[in-house]
Amino acid sequence: MAGVSVVRPASWPLRLAWAAFALYLAYALSHLELTPARFLAGLEFGQKFLAKLFPPDFQRWELLLKGLKESLEMAILASALGVVVSLPVSLLAARNLMPGWVTWPARMLMVVCRSFHPVIVAILFVKAVGFGALAGILALTVASLGFLGKLFAEAIEEISLKQVEAIRSTGAPFMSVITYGVLPQVHARFIGFSSYELDANLRNSTLVGIVGAGGIGGTLFAAFQRFDYDFVCAIILSIIAMIVAGEVLTNAVKRVFRA
Amino acid sequence: MPGAAPQASAVPVSPSGAAALVIRYLCKEYVRGKPILRDINLEIASNGITAIIGPSGTGKSTLIRCINRLVEPTAGAIVFDGHDLTRLPRKELRAVRRLIGMVFQEYNLVERLTVIENVLSGRLGYVTPANAWLRRFPRADVGEAFDLLDTVGLAGFAHQRADALSGGQRQRVGIARALMQRPKLLLADEPTSSLDPKTSVEIMTLMRDLALERGIPAVVNIHNVDLARRFARRVVGLSGGGVVFDGTPDGLTDHHLMQIYGGENWLE
Q1: Nearest CB partner across the interface for A179, out of B94, B133, B177
Q2: B88 — contact with chain A (CB < 8 Å)?
Q3: Is B8 within the bounds of a domain?
Q4: Paired residues of B238 in beta bridges
Q5: What is the pTM of this model?
Q6: Which residues constitute the domain of residue B135?
Q7: Cis peptide before A55 (omega within 30 of 0)
Q8: Count of domains for chain B
């Protein structure tokens, strides 16, 4: 083996770990009965399903449009509410501006909001306030607070305190220190985060309907249960169109604010 | 050389009126038992520039920030405008801060706001947060802000964003912002340390002329001994957290410099 030298000596613990991982994969496969026969049966199902999906059926477009409109409204309202709630909470959670006894409750609140998937939160709100868009809006607002609050707080923690110090030294009241010393530094990033959140809310607003919290999801779920696969296809295509439109919209918003 | 060093004489350099600022037994410890300022006693006359010189890390910035309590003093008294600032509650402190303009080493402008917004931020202590948010300032203040920009040589820059300016231009905005407060005292923390030598002289000239013209006493931390000699009416040498020289620039000898900065080779 002239000219060859081993630069990374074999590590037996690492090899053992890889072997254990491979064993676990084999076990999981066998446990879930993922046999080739099962896979082939699945393919057959899929073929039939795809055949039923097409062509999409847009005959009930009024129902479809009503659901989409509701989802869109829920997403925009929840995003707006989320931003409004996240601003003060993130300010309280910023460790460079607030003392510890203020930041930790704010952080706890955001962690709790982030702990559950929006669908689980939606189930809770459906039970609490009844079926419909209100439950969906509240669920999405909670999710928005969880994420926007954290992102906003992190952005605030990265600002230059020199600018804050200068505004403080003028004798400005606290709120003016925030609007002059802090907000200009984070404004552009906040717009970016908010548009991401709008994007996420658009997608989630099509989902929470499945548990009865309003929007196109309910229509989609009903269509599935009645085996109206051509209508399902129409709904799915419309959702894709809405998400793409949302993407274009949020990009336009970001461009306006970047200038 | 113990004994050889003449005690820095506390030359009374206030030619007119009472002191604008009196500092008594000021102490500051960031870490308990490790004072960075010990028993500072100073009286700042009601006009002219007082330069504070001293080695890095000796507490010049801390001293100047203790005056408007951007840094909380540990002990001592700071008397300004009839108040002991160290005892003022938050609200009154803010009211007094409005009378103390401050200029910073790195300008500390709000980078993403326009030049005129930065100058007007000197009035934030006088407008409500709501009006500040809506950028609604009294007409007289807006007029004064434009005049000040003119004075510092930045007419026509009002609507540029602060981060588009050069260092010297930014410091001019910083001076305009401080003067916009119509202050009774001007504090400057290393106002020229981030600038080239020529711009440094221009900025010091501007600050001295405006301070004298408006009768505002100024306390200026400065690294550069030559600039201190050239622009200050009085020089305070700080070393090891205490005042080791206090006198006129003429009285500042190499001997004192050795006492302030230690060593002597650098003087040659």
Answers
A1: B133
A2: no
A3: no
A4: B243
A5: 0.80
A6: 45-60+96-259
A7: yes
A8: 1
The residue whose two tokens read 């400005």 is: A172
Reported ipTM: the value is 0.88
Does residue B90 lie in a domain region?
no
Phi/psi of residue B109, each to 5°? -80, 155
Q: What one-character-per-residue DSSP string does A101-170 give?
A: HHHHHHHHHHHHHHHS-HHHHHHHHHHHH-SSHHHHHHHHHHHHHHHHHHHHHHHHHTS-HHHHHHHHHT
Q: Return per-residue pLDDT of chain B as tens, 268 residues.
A: 333 333 343 334 344 457 889 999 999 999 888 889 999 999 998 888 999 999 888 889 999 999 999 999 999 999 998 889 999 999 999 999 999 999 999 999 999 999 999 999 999 999 999 999 999 999 999 999 999 999 999 999 999 999 999 999 999 999 999 999 999 999 999 999 989 999 999 999 999 999 999 999 999 999 889 999 999 999 999 988 899 999 999 888 888 888 888 877 777 6
- Tell me the domain boundaries of chain A: 12-46, 61-258
CATH of the domain at B227: 3.40.50.300
On whether residue B21 sits in a domain, the answer given is no
Residue B100 in domain? yes
* Cα–Cα distance measured from residue A136 to residue A139, given in angstroms and rounded to the nearest whole number: 5
Q: Alpha carbon of A139 to those of A116, A193, A242, B202: distances in Å?
A: 10, 19, 20, 60
Q: What distance in Å separates the CA atoms of residue A154 and residue B7, rounded to the nearest whole number?
A: 52
Number of neighbouring beta carbons within 10 Å of residue B35: 18
**Best mutation target, B104, B124, B127, to test chain A (most A CBs within 10 A):** B124
The burial class, CB within 10 Å (0-12 / 13-18 / 19+), for A62 is: exposed
Q: Distance between CA B260 and CA A130 in Å, rounded?
A: 76
Does A171 touch chain B if contact means CB atoms closer than 8 Å?
Answer: yes
**Structure-block tokens of residue A35:** 């046999």
- What is the C-alpha separation between B241 and B223, in angstroms, rounded? 16
Test the A interface: residue of B110, B114, B173, B182 with most A CBs within 10 Å: B110
Q: Which fold has domain A61-258?
A: MetI-like fold (1.10.3720)
